């Protein structure tokens, strides 16, 4: 199946082409800016499906809106009509097609070309009136406030907000591409207009605040809730704008005669992650907690965990090593320690259910042995 993508080198086009290239049955035809119309016509004549993404949104004058958005779409529809074949077409229009501005009118006229093709020939068409689309590879300082904010904040550059209460409607490019692929593979019947979900509502002020928190998390180690919803895809977008020389960042390493201790990541409601080392024969711990709980995982070396109940004096011992991964959990009211009983340095991963608070450490010294 030959699939033509116009605007293949644009933001949405790049993301779509990457996904299309993973489908074995698809042969990609890429039409990009600067190519002559004759190339477009020849591509259409051999195409089995068309994603028409090419368009103009930042012209030198308003006439370019209609040349790049409406006239190009007219040529495409005319060529499809003359082919005598049903070549399904996906058009990326805009929610601004409902507005009385030059860009919106040019997008509306492009839609009308497709609707005329559908009315005259019955050719399958799918029109997407997209809100602001964001995600990786969107050009900053062009027409996307998300891309601009992500780029500037990640590079320590200023951003400009005239009204922080302005609300944006946003959709992630991944959701757009997923919908496109679904249309390509399933060709929904009796459908002219398609909406992409989810659409996120956020103010400019909220957007900027969240991006600043992403940037600050490298210093505070407190990660945002990036596992779900808008924050998940926004974080993925934000880090796509950091420079390669910023892919890594240093952590504070605390060292003494026993070994080293490093905090890696903290959360706002699910504790923190860290790791520590211990030299052969070294014992760490020797304390209990009232509420705090921890999970230990020895990833290198051999450890002896000792537990003593602070009221009954009951003693429990557990031996574990990096050879057989096993979680050892501390329990409130039981004093605990960990000793490196191997011959080499021991490395232990540690999760605590709460971030360490020096003012309220919930750590009481109590020797196990």
What does this structure look like?
The protein is α/β, with parallel strands linked by helices and 369 residues long. It has three domains: 2-130, NAD(P)-binding Rossmann-like Domain (Rossmann fold); 131-171 and 197-250, NAD(P)-binding Rossmann-like Domain (Rossmann fold); 253-365, Jelly Rolls (Sandwich). It is 31% helix and 28% strand. The chain is built from eight helices and 19 strands. The strands form four sheets. It has a six-stranded antiparallel β-sheet with strand order 9-10-11-18-13-16, with no helix packed on it. The model has no long low-confidence stretch (mean pLDDT 94).
Q: Would you kindly provide a brief summary of this structure?
A:
The protein has 369 residues and is of the alpha/beta class. The chain has helices at residues 11-20, 37-46, 63-83, 102-121, 145-154, 173-186, 204-220, 229-239; strands at 2-6, 27-31, 49-52, 89-94, 125-130, 132-134, 167-172, 200-203, 253-256, 259-266, 272-278, 283-288, 294-300, 302-309, 315-321, 327-329, 334-340, 346-352, 364-365. The longest helix has 21 residues, at 63-83.
